[in-house]
Amino acid sequence: MDTNEINLTELLKQHFGFDTFKGDQEAIIRNVLAGNDTFVLMPTGGGKSLCYQLPSLIMEGTAIVISPLIALMKNQVDAIRNYSEEDGVAHFLNSSLNKAAIEQVKADVLSGKTKLLYVAPESLTKEENVEFLRSVKISFYAIDEAHCISEWGHDFRPEYRKIRPIINEICQAPIIALTATATHKVRDDIKKNLGMANAEEFCSSFNRPNLYYEVRPKTKNVDSDIVRFIKTQEGKSGIVYCLSRKKVEELAEILRANNISAAAYHAGMDSALRSQTQDDFIMERVDVIVATIAFGMGIDKPDVRYVIHYDIPKSLEGYYQETGRGGRDGGEGRCIAFYSNKDLQKLEKFLEGKPIAEQDIGKQLLKETTAYCESSVCRRKLLLHYFGETYKEENCGNCDNCLNPKKQVEAQELLCTLLETVIAVKENFKSDYIINIILGKETSEIIAHQHDDLETFGTGTGEEEKTWNAVLQQALISGYLNKDVENYGLIKITAAGKKYLKSPKPFKIVEDRDFDEEENEEMPMRSSGTVVVDPALFSMLKDLRKKVSKQHGLPPYVIFQDPSIEAMATTYPITIEELRNIPGVGEGKAKRYGQDFVDLIRRHVEENEIERPEDMRVRTVANKSKMKVSIIQSIDRKVALDDIAVAKGIEFDELLDEVESIVYSGTKLNIDYFLEEVLDDDKVEEIYEYFKESETDDIEEAIDELGDDYSEEEIRLVRLKFISEMGN
Length: 728
Fold this sequence. Notes:
The chain is an alpha/beta fold. It has five domains: 3-203, Rossmann fold; 211-354, P-loop containing nucleotide triphosphate hydrolases (Rossmann fold); 408-510, Winged helix-like DNA-binding domain superfamily/Winged helix DNA-binding domain (Arc Repressor Mutant, subunit A, Orthogonal Bundle); 535-607, DNA polymerase, domain 1 (Orthogonal Bundle), CATH 1.10.150; 626-727, ATP-dependent DNA helicase RecQ (Arc Repressor Mutant, subunit A). The protein has 34 helices and 17 strands. It has a seven-stranded parallel beta sheet, with helices on both faces. Strands 8-13-12-9-11-10 form a six-stranded parallel beta sheet, with helices on both faces. Strand 5 (138-143), helix 8 (163-170) and strand 6 (175-179) form a beta-alpha-beta unit. Helix 18 crosses helix 19, helix 23 crosses helix 25 (562-571) and helix 23 (535-552) packs across helix 27 (587-607). It starts with 7 loop residues before the first helix and ends with a helix.
């Protein structure tokens, strides 16, 4: 096939309704059409699917797409069918189909109707399927989520190792392997296992300019912060990631108690419920999914508008993958992570008991994530550096650090000290060790290596540890140092670093943030980048899309994506012909769904004589515990707290634990009636004033400060009043 004669832009418009390709898409597609093996490294949301979908529609025969997830197959088949007038254009073949459905798939494939056949690797190994595929004219094989083939990948699947031998059994055809995993080791492993050593490589930028990155201090009010934020995103789809299943269940319930349409999702749920939850999210019956990381890989929902990390992620790669599920249509995507040192310590504790090598790797990954969270440098610059990409802009304009830049300080001398220390230890140690030398810490390891005799030992005590961390992190980004990831993160000096030592020049740094000292400010409300000329029409079109999606049993975004709806509310297309000029609306879609939409727009234009251009209180769930509900009801009825404890069969301090848990999670309780009985007004006032002026609610500190005149119980009771009145 002479690919140069094919007008791909015209075919893209005809089949998918887009005017232009993104990034390397066109070059990748031409390489596939030319019959060459192709390796595609493209970040989540970069448009990988189109790289095999469009050539499959152009080429003779059927493309076999090997994909690890049944849910993902179903979504992609639904999507491709809705760009076409013919349902048989795409099918999947997996264990979810009954015998009659399998026969229908095979009949459509043999008749030549089917251009894309999605199969799971397990289905591919079945003898009857191998036998059937031998009789099919195969245009090419597409291996999606190809990192699953590598033991070094983050989602290794042994059955992916069998793909090449099975392809050899069926018939030879070009291969396109696609992944969003960045390391060289994984790349080499994929190509070796698929026998495509000479494949043309296409590596796209990992920059997602539409995603806004923010890290916030995680305080006791984190649940309330999340509720408040989601309330500002009404009608938008979002995902909240938590590390534990228990927290997933609790937070989903808290959101529902605050009239937010939310559902929980984790691996402990039965598969039917998980599948139903996923469908509800895709079909927009549910706005928010609270999930463990088990959720997301199996969905292809382009209009997720925010991704919140309740807990610090275990690795930056995982964080990037999860945030990448936001804004896949190029629209708004807000990525907010909550971070505290306590969470970090918890994750480090989880590593205990694992093999030493695994612990080392786990700690190294956590250190990368910590550096990302605590740094005041552009988040985008840090993320891209992790994936081996240089981001040259000083200010990305779309992360918290760039929108609220901290003052830069000169660190030329500090950088020289750091580089000299790396050379002195013969580039054979990790970052913590190097900083400990500079800070003069006499650890057993430093003494054993006699590194306490080095010239730079203890020369950095005039600066805080976080400053040295910032110097090291920014020296890595600037290319003066390099981290040997394959070798447990040993710090090496680069040629540029050696050159810098010979002729130093100004080196500005921004100091890392100290999350223990952060105030818990309100989460800033950032407006969407969307500009819609006619918000009333936009809302009506979205309602119509939902109605049409229900009629067809399809997700709303499969009918038309948000950017297409926005364009309709801006340019007012009133004929099918005009509708075809809207981005993302191809011929098939315009014919299949367009009439209702243009009719609605025409009525709106006529009725409005439009000249066309060509107190939110955060309520929390009283846990699942009936006891908490009962305690709240008893306090509302003004039952004395000691009587409540007796009735519940618990000690008074245990009751206070329960009441504190209720109040700290945002529920307002009035215990004045009890305080009047047990405490003098003066005492209440003095303790209350203490908490008003104190920077901490720590009981031990309060006892030290207030003295022996007050018991721990009295201080805790007034603290409850204070938190309830001032915090809720």
